Amino acid sequence: MDDKKTIFSGIQPSGCVTIGNYLGALRSWKQLQDEYNCYFCVVDLHAITVRQTPAELRKRCIDLYAQYIACGLDPEKNVMFFQSHVPAHSELSWLLTCNSYMGEMSRMTQFKEKSKKAGANVGLGLLCYPVLMAADILLYNTDLVPVGADQKQHLELARDLAIRFNNSYSETFTVPEPYIPKNGARIMSLAEPTSKMSKSAENQNAFVSILDEPDVVMKKFARAVTDSDNKIIHDVQNKPGVTNLIEIYSACTGASIQDIENQFLGKGYGDFKKAVGEAVVETIRPIQDNFKHIVQDKAYIEKCFTEGAMKASYTANKTLAKVQRKMGLASRKL
Ligand code: AMP
Ligand code: TRP
Known about the structure:
Layout: E1 6-11, H1 19-32, E2 37-42, H2 44-47, H3 54-70, E3 79-82, H4 88-97, H5 102-106, H6 109-118, H7 124-138, E4 144-146, H8 152-169, E5 177-179, H9 214-222, H10 240-253, H11 257-263, H12 269-294, H13 298-327
Parallel strand pairs: 1-2, 2-3, 4-5
Helix pairs in contact: 3-12, 4-7, 4-13, 7-8, 9-12, 10-12
The protein binds adenosine monophosphate and tryptophan (TRP).
Protein backbone atom coordinates (compact mmCIF):
# COMPACT_ATOMS: atom_id res chain seq x y z
CA MET A 1 0.00 0.00 0.00
CA ASP A 2 1.07 3.61 -0.49
CA ASP A 3 1.46 6.11 2.33
CA LYS A 4 -1.88 7.84 1.78
CA LYS A 5 -4.04 8.28 4.85
CA THR A 6 -7.30 6.36 5.15
CA ILE A 7 -10.86 7.63 5.10
CA PHE A 8 -14.02 5.74 6.03
CA SER A 9 -17.59 7.02 5.81
CA GLY A 10 -21.10 5.75 5.21
CA ILE A 11 -24.75 6.65 4.72
CA GLN A 12 -27.74 4.61 5.81
CA PRO A 13 -30.13 3.40 3.10
CA SER A 14 -33.05 4.59 5.20
CA GLY A 15 -34.62 6.98 2.67
CA CYS A 16 -33.74 9.26 -0.24
CA VAL A 17 -30.34 10.94 -0.04
CA THR A 18 -31.05 14.55 0.97
CA ILE A 19 -29.20 17.73 0.13
CA GLY A 20 -28.13 17.55 3.82
CA ASN A 21 -26.35 14.24 3.15
CA TYR A 22 -24.85 15.67 -0.01
CA LEU A 23 -23.65 19.02 1.34
CA GLY A 24 -22.69 17.60 4.75
CA ALA A 25 -20.99 14.39 3.63
CA LEU A 26 -21.00 13.12 0.03
CA ARG A 27 -19.62 16.27 -1.50
CA SER A 28 -16.55 16.26 0.72
CA TRP A 29 -16.00 12.56 0.04
CA LYS A 30 -15.70 13.39 -3.62
CA GLN A 31 -13.14 16.09 -2.92
CA LEU A 32 -11.08 13.77 -0.73
CA GLN A 33 -10.99 10.69 -2.95
CA ASP A 34 -7.78 11.63 -4.79
CA GLU A 35 -5.73 12.33 -1.70
CA TYR A 36 -6.79 9.43 0.52
CA ASN A 37 -7.42 5.69 0.50
CA CYS A 38 -11.18 5.81 0.82
CA TYR A 39 -13.74 3.29 2.03
CA PHE A 40 -17.30 4.38 1.24
CA CYS A 41 -19.88 2.06 2.69
CA VAL A 42 -23.66 1.71 2.34
CA VAL A 43 -24.37 1.05 6.03
CA ASP A 44 -27.34 -1.27 5.60
CA LEU A 45 -26.96 -2.84 9.06
CA HIS A 46 -27.46 0.61 10.58
CA ALA A 47 -30.69 1.07 8.63
CA ILE A 48 -32.28 -2.03 10.20
CA THR A 49 -32.05 -0.55 13.71
CA VAL A 50 -35.60 0.50 12.85
CA ARG A 51 -38.09 -1.76 11.05
CA GLN A 52 -37.82 -1.60 7.25
CA THR A 53 -39.98 -3.01 4.48
CA PRO A 54 -37.62 -5.65 2.96
CA ALA A 55 -38.36 -5.05 -0.74
CA GLU A 56 -38.04 -1.28 -0.30
CA LEU A 57 -34.82 -1.57 1.66
CA ARG A 58 -33.26 -3.80 -1.00
CA LYS A 59 -34.06 -1.25 -3.71
CA ARG A 60 -32.83 1.66 -1.61
CA CYS A 61 -29.51 -0.10 -0.99
CA ILE A 62 -28.83 -0.45 -4.73
CA ASP A 63 -30.08 3.08 -5.42
CA LEU A 64 -27.84 4.52 -2.73
CA TYR A 65 -24.83 2.72 -4.16
CA ALA A 66 -25.71 4.13 -7.60
CA GLN A 67 -26.05 7.60 -6.06
CA TYR A 68 -22.54 7.32 -4.61
CA ILE A 69 -21.27 6.77 -8.16
CA ALA A 70 -23.56 9.48 -9.56
CA CYS A 71 -22.13 11.97 -7.04
CA GLY A 72 -18.70 11.39 -8.53
CA LEU A 73 -17.25 8.62 -6.34
CA ASP A 74 -15.15 6.29 -8.46
CA PRO A 75 -15.52 2.56 -7.63
CA GLU A 76 -12.11 1.88 -9.19
CA LYS A 77 -10.35 4.43 -7.03
CA ASN A 78 -12.25 3.82 -3.77
CA VAL A 79 -13.41 0.75 -1.91
CA MET A 80 -17.22 0.98 -2.17
CA PHE A 81 -19.35 -1.76 -0.62
CA PHE A 82 -22.31 -2.86 1.49
CA GLN A 83 -21.65 -3.17 5.22
CA SER A 84 -23.55 -6.49 5.43
CA HIS A 85 -21.29 -8.04 2.77
CA VAL A 86 -18.30 -7.83 5.10
CA PRO A 87 -19.21 -9.88 8.20
CA ALA A 88 -16.21 -8.50 10.11
CA HIS A 89 -18.31 -5.38 10.82
CA SER A 90 -20.84 -7.33 12.89
CA GLU A 91 -18.14 -9.43 14.52
CA LEU A 92 -15.97 -6.52 15.63
CA SER A 93 -19.11 -4.76 16.78
CA TRP A 94 -19.72 -7.56 19.31
CA LEU A 95 -16.12 -7.53 20.54
CA LEU A 96 -16.36 -3.76 21.06
CA THR A 97 -19.79 -4.09 22.71
CA CYS A 98 -18.07 -6.18 25.37
CA ASN A 99 -15.73 -3.23 25.98
CA SER A 100 -18.47 -0.58 26.11
CA TYR A 101 -20.54 0.81 28.97
CA MET A 102 -24.26 1.21 29.27
CA GLY A 103 -23.76 4.76 30.57
CA GLU A 104 -21.83 6.04 27.56
CA MET A 105 -24.30 4.48 25.12
CA SER A 106 -27.43 5.82 26.79
CA ARG A 107 -25.90 9.33 26.92
CA MET A 108 -25.78 9.64 23.10
CA THR A 109 -28.02 12.51 21.99
CA GLN A 110 -29.35 10.64 18.96
CA PHE A 111 -30.31 7.64 21.11
CA LYS A 112 -32.02 9.89 23.66
CA GLU A 113 -34.05 11.59 20.95
CA LYS A 114 -35.03 8.36 19.23
CA SER A 115 -35.89 6.60 22.47
CA LYS A 116 -38.09 9.51 23.52
CA LYS A 117 -40.15 8.90 20.39
CA ALA A 118 -40.19 5.09 20.72
CA GLY A 119 -40.96 4.99 24.47
CA ALA A 120 -40.53 1.68 26.30
CA ASN A 121 -40.12 -0.32 23.08
CA VAL A 122 -36.94 1.36 21.96
CA GLY A 123 -34.90 -1.24 20.08
CA LEU A 124 -31.58 -2.46 21.45
CA GLY A 125 -30.09 -1.86 17.99
CA LEU A 126 -30.57 1.88 18.47
CA LEU A 127 -28.61 1.77 21.72
CA CYS A 128 -25.76 -0.30 20.19
CA TYR A 129 -25.71 1.60 16.90
CA PRO A 130 -22.64 3.75 17.76
CA VAL A 131 -20.62 0.60 18.60
CA LEU A 132 -21.32 -0.77 15.11
CA MET A 133 -20.28 2.60 13.71
CA ALA A 134 -17.04 2.44 15.72
CA ALA A 135 -16.42 -1.07 14.34
CA ASP A 136 -16.93 0.24 10.76
CA ILE A 137 -14.30 2.89 11.29
CA LEU A 138 -11.76 0.95 13.36
CA LEU A 139 -11.58 -2.09 11.04
CA TYR A 140 -9.71 -0.08 8.40
CA ASN A 141 -7.18 1.86 10.54
CA THR A 142 -9.09 4.96 9.53
CA ASP A 143 -7.39 8.33 10.04
CA LEU A 144 -10.24 10.61 8.99
CA VAL A 145 -14.05 10.34 9.01
CA PRO A 146 -15.88 12.91 6.87
CA VAL A 147 -19.37 13.38 8.34
CA GLY A 148 -21.95 16.06 9.06
CA ALA A 149 -21.96 17.76 12.47
CA ASP A 150 -24.68 15.43 13.84
CA GLN A 151 -22.21 12.51 13.89
CA LYS A 152 -19.51 14.25 15.94
CA GLN A 153 -20.60 12.65 19.21
CA HIS A 154 -20.63 9.15 17.70
CA LEU A 155 -17.17 9.75 16.38
CA GLU A 156 -15.92 10.80 19.80
CA LEU A 157 -17.27 7.53 21.12
CA ALA A 158 -15.38 5.62 18.41
CA ARG A 159 -12.23 7.43 19.55
CA ASP A 160 -12.93 6.57 23.20
CA LEU A 161 -13.43 2.89 22.34
CA ALA A 162 -10.21 2.82 20.29
CA ILE A 163 -8.18 4.45 23.06
CA ARG A 164 -9.70 2.18 25.71
CA PHE A 165 -8.94 -0.94 23.68
CA ASN A 166 -5.37 0.19 22.99
CA ASN A 167 -4.82 0.85 26.70
CA SER A 168 -6.34 -2.46 27.80
CA TYR A 169 -4.86 -4.81 25.19
CA SER A 170 -1.88 -2.90 23.68
CA GLU A 171 -1.74 -0.64 20.64
CA THR A 172 -4.22 -1.98 18.05
CA PHE A 173 -6.44 0.71 16.54
CA THR A 174 -5.70 4.01 14.84
CA VAL A 175 -7.61 6.74 16.69
CA PRO A 176 -9.76 8.45 14.01
CA GLU A 177 -10.34 12.19 13.58
CA PRO A 178 -13.61 13.79 12.43
CA TYR A 179 -13.64 15.82 9.22
CA ILE A 180 -16.62 18.17 9.26
CA PRO A 181 -17.08 20.58 6.33
CA LYS A 182 -17.18 24.33 7.07
CA ASN A 183 -20.14 24.84 4.76
CA GLY A 184 -23.22 22.61 4.86
CA ALA A 185 -22.35 20.54 7.95
CA ARG A 186 -25.81 20.95 9.40
CA ILE A 187 -28.67 21.52 6.98
CA MET A 188 -31.96 21.93 8.83
CA SER A 189 -35.48 20.72 8.01
CA LEU A 190 -37.47 23.03 5.70
CA ALA A 191 -40.61 22.43 7.75
CA GLU A 192 -39.09 22.61 11.23
CA PRO A 193 -35.85 24.57 10.94
CA THR A 194 -34.72 23.87 14.50
CA SER A 195 -34.20 20.17 13.78
CA LYS A 196 -31.85 18.66 11.18
CA MET A 197 -33.02 17.72 7.71
CA SER A 198 -33.54 13.97 7.84
CA LYS A 199 -34.24 11.53 5.03
CA SER A 200 -36.55 9.51 7.23
CA ALA A 201 -38.88 12.48 7.97
CA GLU A 202 -42.55 11.72 7.36
CA ASN A 203 -43.30 15.17 5.97
CA GLN A 204 -42.02 15.10 2.36
CA ASN A 205 -41.77 18.91 2.37
CA ALA A 206 -39.23 18.83 5.20
CA PHE A 207 -36.39 17.57 3.01
CA VAL A 208 -35.12 17.88 -0.53
CA SER A 209 -33.84 14.67 -2.09
CA ILE A 210 -30.95 14.89 -4.55
CA LEU A 211 -33.26 13.07 -6.98
CA ASP A 212 -36.22 15.48 -6.65
CA GLU A 213 -37.40 16.95 -9.97
CA PRO A 214 -36.71 20.70 -10.44
CA ASP A 215 -40.37 21.71 -10.01
CA VAL A 216 -40.58 19.71 -6.79
CA VAL A 217 -37.43 21.38 -5.47
CA MET A 218 -38.82 24.83 -6.29
CA LYS A 219 -42.12 24.03 -4.60
CA LYS A 220 -40.44 22.73 -1.47
CA PHE A 221 -38.37 25.91 -1.12
CA ALA A 222 -41.40 28.09 -1.82
CA ARG A 223 -43.12 26.38 1.12
CA ALA A 224 -40.10 26.43 3.44
CA VAL A 225 -40.95 27.75 6.90
CA THR A 226 -39.53 31.23 7.56
CA ASP A 227 -40.82 34.09 9.72
CA SER A 228 -42.85 37.20 9.07
CA ASP A 229 -40.33 40.05 8.94
CA ASN A 230 -39.27 39.47 5.33
CA LYS A 231 -35.56 40.29 5.90
CA ILE A 232 -32.77 38.06 4.62
CA ILE A 233 -30.51 38.06 7.67
CA HIS A 234 -28.44 35.24 9.20
CA ASP A 235 -29.62 34.86 12.82
CA VAL A 236 -29.74 31.31 14.16
CA GLN A 237 -31.62 32.19 17.36
CA ASN A 238 -34.38 34.37 15.97
CA LYS A 239 -34.58 33.43 12.29
CA PRO A 240 -33.70 29.71 12.02
CA GLY A 241 -35.66 29.18 8.77
CA VAL A 242 -34.07 32.05 6.83
CA THR A 243 -30.66 31.22 8.31
CA ASN A 244 -30.96 27.66 7.02
CA LEU A 245 -31.86 28.91 3.54
CA ILE A 246 -28.87 31.27 3.58
CA GLU A 247 -26.61 28.38 4.54
CA ILE A 248 -27.98 26.16 1.79
CA TYR A 249 -27.50 28.96 -0.73
CA SER A 250 -23.98 29.54 0.53
CA ALA A 251 -23.10 25.83 0.37
CA CYS A 252 -24.41 25.57 -3.21
CA THR A 253 -22.95 28.77 -4.65
CA GLY A 254 -19.83 29.29 -2.54
CA ALA A 255 -20.96 32.86 -1.70
CA SER A 256 -20.25 34.03 1.86
CA ILE A 257 -23.05 34.78 4.34
CA GLN A 258 -22.15 38.49 4.21
CA ASP A 259 -22.30 38.57 0.40
CA ILE A 260 -25.68 36.85 0.43
CA GLU A 261 -27.11 39.33 2.95
CA ASN A 262 -25.84 42.20 0.78
CA GLN A 263 -27.09 40.63 -2.45
CA PHE A 264 -30.63 40.27 -1.07
CA LEU A 265 -30.79 43.53 0.88
CA GLY A 266 -34.23 45.05 0.32
CA LYS A 267 -35.55 41.91 -1.43
CA GLY A 268 -38.29 39.71 0.00
CA TYR A 269 -38.55 36.02 0.89
CA GLY A 270 -40.25 35.16 -2.41
CA ASP A 271 -37.22 36.26 -4.47
CA PHE A 272 -34.77 34.66 -2.09
CA LYS A 273 -36.55 31.29 -1.94
CA LYS A 274 -36.61 31.21 -5.72
CA ALA A 275 -32.86 31.88 -5.86
CA VAL A 276 -32.13 29.16 -3.29
CA GLY A 277 -34.32 26.68 -5.20
CA GLU A 278 -32.53 27.46 -8.46
CA ALA A 279 -29.09 27.10 -6.84
CA VAL A 280 -30.07 23.68 -5.49
CA VAL A 281 -31.54 22.56 -8.84
CA GLU A 282 -28.24 23.47 -10.55
CA THR A 283 -26.21 21.67 -7.89
CA ILE A 284 -28.12 18.40 -8.19
CA ARG A 285 -28.78 18.41 -11.94
CA PRO A 286 -25.53 16.66 -12.96
CA ILE A 287 -26.03 14.04 -10.25
CA GLN A 288 -29.50 13.25 -11.56
CA ASP A 289 -28.23 12.92 -15.12
CA ASN A 290 -25.53 10.48 -14.00
CA PHE A 291 -27.91 8.53 -11.79
CA LYS A 292 -30.37 7.85 -14.62
CA HIS A 293 -27.63 6.10 -16.61
CA ILE A 294 -25.90 4.24 -13.81
CA VAL A 295 -28.97 2.79 -12.15
CA GLN A 296 -29.95 0.98 -15.35
CA ASP A 297 -26.69 -0.92 -15.46
CA LYS A 298 -27.37 -3.53 -12.79
CA ALA A 299 -24.46 -5.75 -13.86
CA TYR A 300 -21.97 -2.91 -13.48
CA ILE A 301 -23.28 -1.99 -10.03
CA GLU A 302 -23.12 -5.64 -8.94
CA LYS A 303 -19.57 -6.00 -10.18
CA CYS A 304 -18.52 -2.84 -8.33
CA PHE A 305 -20.04 -3.76 -4.98
CA THR A 306 -18.74 -7.33 -5.15
CA GLU A 307 -15.19 -6.20 -5.85
CA GLY A 308 -15.59 -3.55 -3.15
CA ALA A 309 -16.60 -6.14 -0.54
CA MET A 310 -13.67 -8.36 -1.50
CA LYS A 311 -11.16 -5.54 -1.10
CA ALA A 312 -12.75 -4.37 2.18
CA SER A 313 -12.80 -7.93 3.60
CA TYR A 314 -9.08 -8.29 3.13
CA THR A 315 -8.22 -5.40 5.47
CA ALA A 316 -11.19 -5.92 7.78
CA ASN A 317 -10.38 -9.59 8.41
CA LYS A 318 -6.79 -8.78 9.29
CA THR A 319 -7.90 -6.26 11.93
CA LEU A 320 -10.58 -8.60 13.24
CA ALA A 321 -8.09 -11.47 13.66
CA LYS A 322 -5.75 -9.17 15.56
CA VAL A 323 -8.53 -8.10 17.93
CA GLN A 324 -9.70 -11.67 18.48
CA ARG A 325 -6.17 -12.75 19.33
CA LYS A 326 -5.60 -9.86 21.71
CA MET A 327 -8.85 -10.59 23.52
CA GLY A 328 -7.78 -14.21 24.02
CA LEU A 329 -9.92 -16.10 21.50
CA ALA A 330 -8.29 -19.21 20.01
CA SER A 331 -6.92 -18.39 16.55
CA ARG A 332 -9.05 -19.49 13.62
CA LYS A 333 -7.52 -22.03 11.28
CA LEU A 334 -10.06 -21.79 8.45
P1 AMP B 1 -27.51 9.48 7.58
O1 AMP B 1 -28.53 10.13 6.72
O2 AMP B 1 -27.87 9.58 9.03
O3 AMP B 1 -27.13 8.12 7.14
O4 AMP B 1 -26.19 10.39 7.43
C1 AMP B 1 -25.22 10.21 6.43
C2 AMP B 1 -24.24 11.35 6.43
O5 AMP B 1 -24.88 12.59 6.09
C3 AMP B 1 -23.57 11.60 7.79
O6 AMP B 1 -22.24 11.99 7.56
C4 AMP B 1 -24.35 12.73 8.36
O7 AMP B 1 -23.61 13.51 9.27
C5 AMP B 1 -24.68 13.55 7.12
N1 AMP B 1 -25.94 14.29 7.31
C6 AMP B 1 -27.16 13.74 7.53
N2 AMP B 1 -28.10 14.70 7.65
C7 AMP B 1 -27.44 15.88 7.51
C8 AMP B 1 -27.85 17.26 7.53
N3 AMP B 1 -29.13 17.59 7.74
N4 AMP B 1 -26.92 18.22 7.35
C9 AMP B 1 -25.63 17.89 7.14
N5 AMP B 1 -25.17 16.63 7.11
C10 AMP B 1 -26.06 15.63 7.28
N1 TRP C 1 -24.18 6.75 11.78
C1 TRP C 1 -23.93 7.45 10.56
C2 TRP C 1 -25.11 8.37 10.23
O1 TRP C 1 -26.22 8.09 10.55
C3 TRP C 1 -23.70 6.52 9.41
C4 TRP C 1 -22.48 5.72 9.64
C5 TRP C 1 -22.43 4.40 10.03
C6 TRP C 1 -21.16 6.17 9.52
N2 TRP C 1 -21.15 4.01 10.13
C7 TRP C 1 -20.34 5.05 9.86
C8 TRP C 1 -20.57 7.39 9.18
C9 TRP C 1 -18.97 5.16 9.86
C10 TRP C 1 -19.18 7.47 9.19
C11 TRP C 1 -18.39 6.38 9.54
O2 TRP C 1 -24.91 9.36 9.64
